[in-house]
Write a structure and sequence with these properties.
It is built from 12 helices and no strands. It has 194 residues and is an all-alpha fold. Helix 3 crosses helix 12 and helix 5 packs antiparallel against helix 10. It is globular and about 45 Å long.
């Protein structure tokens, strides 16, 4: 899952959300140096990633992309899944997507001291370009995938994957819907154990 899903699955604690958001930049036992609530978010993020990568529905989606995008297929499906979460947000939350996103951006600023250096560098771009809200449209995720592609020096060709998204749109959306119900249950149970 990508940023939006990870933040959503973190529950109501801002510090758990922040921990989940920064988790990709935290290696091994480094998480122990963070605030306890941040630690929960980092551990939750890792559990979500493991669960997702091993799930048959997620693997089914990556197989649709593998011949063109190889090991980047999982990253692309993560972004696709955030698109479907944003698109169908009202099904998953009583809070509007706009309010949810704005509240998270506020907590990024409020708890900036809890961010990794990488997250601090990314934060202003994320807010200015409104990444989380832009997941809602295909044009928005195409821009995000293009930015991610640039970071691979255009080797990944991720920007082109919108073609497959459009072609298999209903299949990807159905797989996301079925998968996300299971992931929500898994994440809720995991949060209770942290």
């Amino acid at each position: 899952m990508n940023f939006l899903a990870h933040i959503y699955l973190s529950g109501s604690s801002d510090l758990i959300k922040i921990g989940n958001f920064i988790a990709d930049g935290v290696r091994g036992n480094q998480y122990l140096s963070f605030d306890f609530e941040n630690q929960k978010g980092i551990v939750l993020h890792r559990a979500i990633d493991t669960y997702t990568d091993e799930h048959p529905l997620f693997r089914k989606c990556t197989k649709r992309l593998h011949s063109h995008y190889h090991h980047y297929s999982g990253v692309i499906v993560d972004v696709f899944f955030d698109h479907f979460l944003a698109k169908n947000w009202n099904y998953y939350s009583e809070e509007s997507l706009e309010d949810f996103v704005q509240n998270f951006y506020i907590s990024l600023t409020t708890y900036e001291m809890h961010l990794t250096e990488k997250a601090k560098m990314m934060q202003p771009y994320m807010i200015k370009q409104n990444w989380l809200l832009n997941y809602r449209s295909i044009d928005g995720i195409e821009k995000i995938l293009t930015q991610m592609d640039r970071r691979t020096k255009n080797v990944s060709m991720m920007r082109n994957s919108v073609t497959e998204l459009k072609h298999y749109y209903s299949e990807f959306e159905q797989d996301f819907t079925d998968f996300f119900e299971e992931l929500r249950t898994f994440s809720s149970k995991k949060l209770l154990t942290l």
